[in-house]
Design brief:
alpha+beta; Heat Shock Protein 90; Ribosomal Protein S5, domain 2; Rossmann fold; 5-stranded mixed sheet; 24 strands; 36% helix
């Protein structure tokens, strides 16, 4: 095919743009921090803090203090060695300036600066500087205080000595650039949860978080001598454990260290959280593979050796032996190799064998030394095995031969015509009336509708065999076609956009929460790979004369009325509040909620599985008291509650 002459004219050498220094970061910030929304904003704090954490990993820092200042700038203080200030031999400028103005500059590229490190590997400080309205760095080392200031990534002062110091460390203060970020308001709770995680993973480290924005500053001090043992206890604080002591073991070889903490609960789901150099490996990796292989083999071997598992009984599966487990796998290694689309899967081959050998040796020793605990764990695994066997036939019924076949689909499913799952959307709709409007209003080519009615099973309190027998969840499992639990296969997923569409009231919120609980516990890869969305139907229709405008919350309504100069008491102004999806006709539902050109949707993102697990446990678990405390704490922050 001949290229059109118009394209030939405009594409030449002069069109190739070269971005020098940190211009590329400001031009394409999402390439470096993922997003310019809230998550990216908070990521700036983590990147500066990671440099302090690296000093702690190297054994030179034991205290980090992060302050949210009154103007929403951030100050990070550590008692590490202080960033080097000498003249860089190649660039001829102070090393601290190199670190903050040159991409891929730092002590983490095979030099002797750091044995292990996290963060963006030499990109962090310069990226934060580039995306800041201003930054000020003070270095304490060699008995002196050095200071340099930057604006939007460029130095505006030279590095100068401003005083003497009898301590060492680095103080970094920066103000996120409002030209880059949607908002620059930091959330104390978001920072607190990540800092707590870092304090757990780095035993002995003390992290201070201070919020100076209120009249009475808010302060938290995070320090855990128990390390990841304390981490497991924290995760299980709202769960019922089946043995008191947390099982802990560790080991190292050459340039890698592994530590693991385990405790079983009476729940029906597994929670295995893994980290490499403090980075959450949400997609797992070789360290998780080694752990799973070893724990399955050790428990089966011990169960047969002690005759708890009889000769005529099948081996317990990995899913069985991990039911109810809470485990932290924490590895530190010299050169982590990350894989996967989001770079959250560890790929180092040697870490698998190291993890597997440590678990095999030390878990076997623990079981033999603690037969009562061993028996409790194995009996729970056997109960799980029997329940799964009972559910096997039902599971087989839900499987599809491939992603495109449509036999045995739910009767109420209105499927789409498109055969490519990447282009297909499934709307899971609350209620038959809304389902009817959605079926009429949809684009049949690529949009499928699955109506659900009534409350479904709360899977937080149910084993997998109950899930297969549930008439509300079975249509969802069958329609998606990918299976659940360990056997989920995204290659068989029939729709790459799964959109939960429920009423904007308490019942609708409950149904959304139940569906999200199910997807998080039994179909987590759907969430991890960005397939799950929440539809955002409008809350109001505002009509004046021939003008009709849909708005999605009360804040938007008030802004619209102010912008237009309309008064609520005006008799010619009609404000309709939708109580449910069923109140909209097919055309309105399409225009406001289903049309890809005009709709609003929330994408469900799994930033931190530990926090997600905590929230689902509190809100959907057996224990009432944690739920009561949560409601009391956050009741005043509730928005759009249908009264």
């Amino acid at each position: 095919m001949k290229i059109p002459a118009k394209q030939e004219k405009i594409y030449g050498a002069e069109q190739i743009q070269v971005l020098e220094g940190l211009e590329a970061v400001r031009k394409r910030p999402s390439m470096y921090i993922g997003t310019t929304a809230s998550r990216g904003l908070h990521h700036l704090v983590y990147e500066i803090m990671d440099n302090s954490i690296d000093e702690a990993l190297a054994g030179y820092c034991d205290t980090i203090k992060v302050i949210i200042n009154k103007d929403n700038s951030i100050t990070n203080i550590d008692n590490g060695r202080g960033i080097p200030v000498g003249i860089h031999p190649k660039l001829g400028i102070p090393t601290v300036e190199v670190v903050h103005t040159v991409l891929h500059a730092g002590g983490k590229f095979g030099g002797e600066g750091y044995r292990v490190s996290g963060g963006l590997h030499g990109v962090g400080a310069s990226v934060v500087n580039a995306l800041s309205e201003w930054m000020e760095v003070t270095v304490l080392r060699d008995g002196k205080q050095y200071k340099q200031k930057y604006e939007r990534g460029k130095p505006v002062t030279k590095l100068e000595i401003v005083g003497e110091s009898d301590s060492t460390g680095t103080i970094t203060t920066f103000k996120a650039d409002p030209q880059i970020f949607d908002e620059i308001e930091f959330d104390y709770d978001i920072l607190l949860k990540r800092f707590r995680e870092l304090a757990f993973l780095n035993r002995g480290l003390t992290v201070h978080l201070v919020d100076e924005r209120e009249d009475e500053p808010k302060k938290s001090i995070l320090h855990y001598e128990g390390g990841i043992v304390s981490f497991v206890q924290y995760i299980n604080q709202n769960k019922s454990v089946i043995h008191d002591n947390v099982i802990y073991f560790s080991g190292d070889k050459e340039d890698a260290e592994v530590e693991i903490a385990i405790q079983y609960t009476d729940s029906y789901v597994e929670n295995v959280f893994s980290f490499a150099n403090n980075i959450p490996t949400t997609e797992g990796g070789t360290h998780v593979t080694g752990f799973k292989a070893a724990i399955t083999k050790v428990i089966n071997d011990y169960a047969r050796k002690t005759n708890i598992l009889k000769d005529n009984e099948k081996n317990l599966s990995g899913e069985d032996v991990r039911e109810g487990i809470t485990a932290i796998i924490n590895v530190k290694l010299l050169d982590p190799q990350f894989e996967g689309q989001t770079k959250t899967k560890l790929g180092n081959a040697d870490i698998r064998s190291l993890t597997e050998s440590i678990v095999s040796e030390k878990l076997q020793y623990f079981l033999e030394e603690n037969p009562k605990t061993a028996k409790i764990i194995i009996e729970k695994s056997i109960t799980s095995f029997r329940a799964r066997e009972a559910a096997r036939k039902a599971r087989e019924m839900t499987r599809r031969k491939n992603a495109l076949e449509s036999y045995s689909l739910p009767g109420k499913l209105a499927d789409c015509q498109e055969n490519d799952p990447r282009l297909c959307e499934l709307f899971i709709v609350e209620g038959d009336s809304a389902g009817g409007s959605a079926k009429q209003g949809r684009d049949r080519k690529f949009q499928a509708i699955l109506p659900l009615w009534g409350k479904m099973l709360n899977v937080e309190k149910a084993r997998q065999d109950k899930v297969y027998g549930n008439e509300k969840l079975m249509p969802v499992i069958t329609a998606l076609g990918a299976g659940i639990g360990e056997e989920i296969d995204l290659e068989k997923l029939r729709y790459h956009k799964i959109i939960i569409m429920a009423d904007a009231d308490v019942d609708g919120q409950h149904i959304r929460t139940l569906l999200l609980t199910f997807m998080f516990r039994y179909m987590k890869p759907l969430v991890e790979n960005g397939h799950v969305y929440i539809a955002q139907p409008p809350l109001f229709k505002v009509k004046k004369g021939k003008e009709e405008i849909y708005v999605y919350n009360e804040r938007e309504l008030n802004s619209l009325l102010k912008e237009k100069g309309w008064e609520k008491g005006d008799s010619s102004l009609n404000i309709q509040r939708y109580k449910g999806l069923g109140e909209m006709n097919a055309e309105q539902l399409w225009d406001t909620t289903m049309n890809p050109e005009t709709r609003k949707m929330l994408k469900i993102d799994l930033n931190n599985p530990v926090i997600a697990d905590e929230i689902f446990t509190i809100l959907m678990g057996e224990k009432v008291q944690p739920r009561k405390e949560f409601i009391q704490k956050y009741a005043r922050k509730v928005a759009n509650l249908d009264i």
